[in-house]
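re: that complex we talked abt at group meeting.

here r the seqs, copy pasted straight from the sheet so there may be weird spacing, ignore it
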Amino acid sequence: MTANIDMPALAVFVFFFLLVTVMGFVAARWRRPESLDHLDEWGLGGRKFGTWITWFLVGGDFYTAYTVIAVPALVYAIGAYGFFALPYTIIVYPLVFAVMPLLWKVAKSRGYVTAGDVVRGSYGSRALELAVASTGVIATMPYIALQLIGMEVAIKALGLTGEMPIILAFLVLALYTYSSGLRAPALIAFVKDIMIYIVVLAAIIVVPSKLGGYGAVFAAADAAFEAKGKGGILLDSAQLVPYVTLALGSALAAFMYPHTLTGIFASAGANTIRKNAVLLPAYTLLLGLLALLGYMGHAAGLQLQSNNDVVPTLFKTLFPGWFAGFAFAAIAIGALVPAAVMSIGAANLFTRNFWKVWVNPDVTPAGEAKVAKITSMLVKVGALLAILLLPTQFALDLQLLGGLWILQTLPALVFGLYTSWFRAPALLWGWAAGFIGGTVLVWSDGLKPLHALSFDGMTVSIYTGLLALALNVAVAVVVNLFVSAKATAPGPLAVAAEGESGK
Amino acid sequence: MRLLLLAPYVGLLWVPFYNFAEPKLFGFPFFYWYQLAWVPLTSLLTYFVYRSVRHDG
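got the structure back, here u go
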């Protein structure tokens, strides 16, 4: 602990942190079910979340602390290119509107809790189920670690040092997730989202007035990139294709993650999801405005040790201590909500698609809930150890690969909603090709998300996740042609699966 | 009606449409306010589609 702790900031921070801790434990009684000892209750909040709860929950867990920290940091570092998060979080919603109500209906009618359940139900393949479920878990682990890194940045900005504060914060998170399940982050999301809205509104109104207006902010950023000789407030021609492919690839991957799917499955109906596709872009506006904080950092002439400090340092420099404390609390709580939902999503996958299938097929609903609770603890401890023991860069690299990995589950999860043409072996080969091929490409490119392709002497860089998805689909189609030709009775498996209870 | 959902993809994924500084709006270069404007626009288009399909359950 150092001496330069801002007491008003710390007091406000601790107050809000205690508030959400109490809420986390009280949440177990909120819309109280007969028993929390059932995965539908602990892991999906009873599938009864209406439009507004879903809006706060999905908004709270899709727009993570890393978004608040990393998007402005990227914009601060290289400018317009960092804004790909804006088109990404716009085009994701028409996709959610079109696909997710169908997925929800399948899940609801057959009692599915996870993506793995859906895949087994559609294709009757344990191998494909395992592939989809384990991809979900390993893509989520580094994502949880990143939430911790976001929380660390906020805690460090308060002037607290050492590992105790982050361990303490995580212990609290782990305990109330254990006892309240999805109800805890759903309730805390209300506080988190309102805090973030207040912080962003304050920033976009107050900061430009202190710095001479938006024109001056953009001019200062432009001059800073000019001086640095790197980046800019418009895209250069080599950045166009990376910008678009990153936006599209990220949008396709976004709702394949266990934490976002959990938010979808927990909602009360198909129209709840459709209404949310209309209403959730409000958060995207927030994200776009937050990204501008990166430029405000240039206009304020901040001297930073790390790009990730741009938002906290901006608040520390331009706002009174108590409001800076409020902003840091918003960032830290902003990390708690997604971390809780991610650990629940991963725990649901492990319980339903690994434990129940391979370890104890006769597990009772209460037993399932117990296994999921313990798994959610272990997942979080793992993420905590990862950031305490491993270099931060390792978590960042894994998170990058996680996006590519989770994207490879899209064909298995989504194609079956529209066609019964694909067979399990084809989708499994496609998944393997995309997963392994994509990982090798990223590895050989020095853990960069872009791969350079040459056509006719013209070189373009494309998001590797999209290339891997293209390979995935191509392999699935080719193998499927082969498998279908050999199959004697090619009856649609989706219909065959109707007979299963899926419970 | 559902085709309206494709509009944001066309508007946002063809970057040469909007990679410009001018015209500015409230100090924002075109690149920025154009993309931000697609947020409420996408909401509105999605709402129109929602109105046409909500009775499908």
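couple things i noticed - The two ends of chain A are 51 Å apart (CA to CA). Residues 321-359 of chain A form the longest helix (39 residues).
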